[in-house]
Amino acid sequence: MSKPKVFEKPSGVKDYLPEAASKLRAIEWNVLQCMDRWGYRQIITPTIEYYDTVGAASSTANERLFKLLDNKGTTLVLRSEMTAPIARVVSSLLKDEALPLRLSHHSNVFRAIEEEAGREAEFFQTGVELVGDGSAEADAEVVALAAACLKAAGVNQFKIALGHIGFLNGLLNFHLSDRSEDEHVLKQYLLQRDYVGYRHYLRSLPLSTEAKEELESILRLRGGQGVIMEAEQLAKDDQAKASIRHLGEVWDALQAYDVIDQVQIDLTMIGNFSYYTGLIFEGYAAELGFPVCSGGRYDNLLAQFGRPAPATGFALATNRIMQVTADHAEEKSYRVLVIYNAANRTQAIQAALNFREKHGYAVETQYVGEAQLPDSISVNDNQTYLYHGNVYDDILRFDN
Amino acid sequence: MAQELLKVAMPKGRIYKQASKLFREAGFEIPEDFDDSRKLIIPLPEAGMEFIMAKPADVPTYVEYGAADVGVVGKDVLMEENRGVYELLDLGIARCRMSVIGLPDWKPAMHPRIATKYPNVASRYFREKGQQVEVIKLNGSIELAPLIGLADRIVDMVESGQTIRENGLTEMEKMFDVTSRLIANRVSYRLKNDTIQALCDRLQLAIERK
User: Fold this and answer.
1) Which distant-in-sequence residues (6+ apart) come within 8 Å of A374 by Cβ?
2) What pLDDT, in 10s, does the model give residues A166-177?
3) Is A216 near chain B, with CB under 8 Å?
């Protein structure tokens, strides 16, 4: 590649100018406040981690990890998500703290750079992890909190789809118990969202017509509570049955949280099988082509760090949410300019400090030369002042 | 929300005629032949849709980013582009195959070179077969490459095989069958579930009637 031009930055990273930055901060603050009210305490972990520990344990595909070498030749990763780092902390620094632990986080996360618009190499996530509670109540709490956070972030129209890894696992395992190869192929088709390939491969298998019909019908298991009943008919083995029962319990609990209108069941949704172990969910906002939130249960991860415990959580894609929320109407601070010359410096600066501390105004100061009067102040229609292209609510002069 | 039109990315050209015919057979009111018009966005309120006329290779991109809710696209493009979209239905139209093609007297080359419009598909295929090849991306008239010695084989779509024969080439192996597919955006598929499922079901019925 040729040498970059001075305005260029690596593809997939973004600058946030003052307005966007304050919007992002407002969303982050509102969401973290919401999490705080649900008893989740924020923690901060480092940007870089070891590839062999956090990198290997993370749900991000190996080729999508942003890898670096330190000066000893050890491979490092820029964190790709927050769940694995938090699992590390829970199993080490917090290992004597009683479970359940409720933790929240907000941070930038990274992916290997890809040369295409929309493939972000750095983005923001705000999320929670609930460690040490494997119950349906805990799953429901996390889903309801996700809904509350999306509301707090200012997303008006959204849906959260719930799925369950155990249902598909159980069902496929029941019908294909002696054909683990085929089971793997079918799961790959589902993971790639290739329903045509799934149906085609399924029809080629030497299974009973009934089994084929049942396995094909899972592609339609989307909708409201009725889907749980439909799925109960299909569930024949213990794992699938237990999963559906669990999903039903989560649904009942969500009714108590009063978020059922925002939730739907989607048993065709499957996450990374080697990572997630139970209930999984994704949040969608109208007008945005990508999910704004994803999460689920990952009961095997903590064991990799030496403290086996069930856990669940989610992350909001804060910078995607930013695209669908209205420009935040948060009150802008009263902006004042203090103009002063050398003779009145002390008086001017004391006045500025006073305005900042006592009144909370945003005060800028501008030094002007001895006998040089600023003649470029003009008054706008809306009673604000214009000085050298900047707008102020008030201008105070200490220059004569 | 109920009156909102479903945004459908349609491939311009060859596949469009067959796709719009299938939509009509499924009972959607779509006027015949405006594919030669230059309009890029065509509202079809009677059918509850809006067609976005796109270059075939761009259809998965529109759908992945949510600029369109669903789209019609060949499996060849899906294999090449590898986009995060749902592949819902095999429409059974624009049937052809992806094949390896070469001169009749082809012998294994020392440094095999493959010319194609589908570099990702070709690379993956030969890698899985355990062959290391050099892939050259061309944008059209692929058949030229072996004739003028640019490549020893090509990977391309074959419909009847006539173009190949006319150029004195031979189809060496079929890689996979290609038909057009209905694809959907990840979010639309959930938020507009009922509309998209209804579209799927009606198209499915029309396909089965054939």
Assistant:
1) A339, A366, A368, A387, A397, A399
2) 998 899 989 988
3) no
